[in-house]
Amino acid sequence: MKQVRFAAAVVGAMVMATACYGAINIKFAHSGSLEHQYNIGAEHFKQLVEEKSGGELTVTIFPQGQLGGERELAEGVRMGTVEIGSLSPSNMTGFVPEFDLFGVPFLFKTPAQVYAVMDGSVGEKLNKIMLDKGFHNLAYWEVGFRNMTNDRQPVKTPEDMKDMKIRVQESKLKMELIKALGAIPTPIPFGELYSALQQKVVDGQENPIATIYSMKFYEVQKYLSLTRHTYEPALVLANPKWFDSLDPKYQQILTDAAKETAVWQRAKLAELDAQRLAEIKVAGVQVEERPDLDAFAKATESIAKLAQETVPADLMEEAKAIAASVTE
To answer: Which of 156, 239, 291, 328 could pair with 80 as two cysteines, CB 3.0-4.6 Å apart?
Structure first.
């Protein structure tokens, strides 16, 4: 009887071990907080992947830069030490210069324009460019339209930004944009930005409302100007060799889950934006809701020409045409 029980225990242990061994665990890394757009998407993606695969695929999320800043994450994905990472295109221009498309001010005015561009032919062309550089993009999630904050004074026109030190991503276009506004661009890693603002290393920064809220930048900034000067998607990058090694059914699950998450996450962020802006105001931040956008556009019109050095002319024109065709 003891032998039977022992044999049953051994078989049970073997079944459990096989189940554990058979499950494929996926590392999903990003640099945002637990309330950041990246993590909102990652949590939903994890849920969908595990449900769709019946637990055969599991996702472990590494938020808050646990596996490195965005440049390190990009390297990690390309080398295969990280299976999937969510990153901003502006932090990827060193790998994919064509992402300067997202550094052109006022190229997009509405979310509908952005989605038509990213979910259509332009997004597909960028996906092919990324694949050639060692990145398989599963979908375009959202970071959002970027706005200016600072700790010195209200900003209604570019003149109000003169000589302010503004944190920017490590992107030539972003740096030139800030210079065009009369301010001083200062590259600082995203994970160090809160302390840089707190310690007055820089006067301000530019990010979407969702980021300003989730990273708590409003705690160390007095003024917010809703310039919406550029739009930033969130890439969902997988290592191509790892992805291609998966069973096709798992590839489809990951692709479907990423695309479904894009639709869900965009809608979720739209819901949250008004609520978060209200909370930012309650926290004491003075919000300029109607800055002189014509003045900002005029001051930064040279940036589009600069982008021609890295963005193929046909890709730029295609993006403009698609955006112009969306009137809602």
So the answer is: 239
The torsion region of residue 55 among left (phi > 0), alpha (psi -120 to 50) and beta comes to left
User: How confident is the model at residue 21, as a pLDDT?
Assistant: 54
What CATH number should be reported for the domain holding residue 34? 3.40.190.170
Is the pTM here over 0.85, yes or no? Answer: yes
Residue 178 structural domain: 23-323
How remote is the C-alpha of 255 from its chain's centroid? 17
Three state DSSP letters for 57-121: EEEEEECCCCCCCHHHHHHHHHHCCCCEEEECHHHCCCCCHHHHHHHCCCCCCCHHHHHHHHCCH
pLDDT bin (cut points 50, 70, 90) of residue 2 is very low
**62 Ramachandran zone, left/alpha/beta (phi>0; psi -120 to 50):** beta
- pLDDT tens, residue by residue, 278-297: 999 999 999 999 999 999 99
Task: For residue 218, tell me if it sits in a domain.
Answer: yes
Token pair of 23, please? 């499950």
Q: Per-residue confidence at 20, pLDDT binned at 50, 70, 90?
A: very low
Quick one: tokens of 147? Answer: 């706005």
Residue 139 in this model has a pLDDT that exceeds 60: yes
Domain assignment of residue 123, yes or no: yes
Name the strand (E) or helix (H) holding 186: strand 184-187
Task: Please give the tally of structural domains in the chain.
Answer: 1
Distance between CA atoms of residues 135 and 158, nearest Å = 37
- pLDDT at residue number 81: 97
